[in-house]
C-alpha cells in the first residue's frame, strides 16, 4: 500500500491542472486514477486493480484520508485533488478551448440531464457522444469512444469497473484525458448536491455524504476506517 501512496501526485491542484492543459494542448494521452481508501483497500483483494495501480499512470490523492496517510508515512502530498474537481475543471477548459468530450456512465436520466447542462452552459464543448452505464456491451462502447478520439473521456461506472475498462483499452488510445469519475455525473448534472463549501473547505465531504446517505456507514467503515488502522500499524 505504501508504494502506491508514493506514486500520488504531490504538488498543488493548480500545478496539476497546468499539466492537464499541456496534455490537451499537445494532444498527449493521460489516464487519471483517483486514489482513495476504497481504491487501495479493493486492490488488496482484486488482482486486476492491483495491476492497474502497478502501472505508470496519473495517480491523484482523492480524499483527505489518503493525504493524511501519505504524510504519516513521510510522503509529502500537498493537497487532495478530487475527481469531481478535476471533472469540473475539464469542463471549463474544454469550453474555453472548444475541446471534444465523450461521457460514459450513470443512469440514462442523469446523463441526459448532464448533456443538456453542457449544451446550455458549456456551449463551446463538442459532445462526440454519450452512453449510460447500463449498456450491455461496454467493450463495444469503449471501442467506439477510442475511434472517435475525444480530447476528454469521463467514465462514470464506479470503482473498479471504470478503471478496469479504461485500462483494458488505454494502449489503443492515441490522445486525450481519460478519467473514471464515479458518481460525479450525479453532481455535475444537478441530480445530487455536492457538500456545502464549508464541508469541502474543512475536508468533511465524507461526513456530509454519510449524513445524507446513512447506508454509506458500512462502506465507510470497511474502507476508510480499516485503511487508517492499516496505516497506523505501518
Question: Can you put this structure into words, describing what you see?
Answer:
- The chain is α/β, with parallel strands linked by helices and 234 residues long.
- It has one domain.
- 54% of the residues lie in helices and 14% in strands.
- It is built from 13 helices and six strands.
- The protein has a six-stranded parallel beta sheet, sandwiched between helices.
- α3 crosses α4.
- It is globular and about 50 Å long.
- The N and C termini lie close together (10 Å).
- Principal-axes geometry comes out as globular
Give the strand content.
Answer: 5-15%
Low-confidence segments, ≥5 residues, pLDDT <50?
none
Overall radius of gyration = 17 Å
> What's the quaternary structure here?
single chain
Order of helices and strands: HHEHHEHHEHEHEHEHHHH
Quantity of strands, as a count: 6
End-to-end distance = 10 Å
As a percent range, the share of helical residues equals 40-55%
Structural class of the helices, strands and pairings? alpha/beta
Strand count, sense and closure of the main sheet? Answer: 6 strands, parallel
With helices defined by DSSP (H or I, 4 residues minimum), what is the helix count?
A: 13
The overall pLDDT, averaged over residues, is 91
Looking across the biggest beta sheet, what order are the strands in?
A: 2-1-6-5-3-4
Q: Number of domains in the coordinates?
A: 1
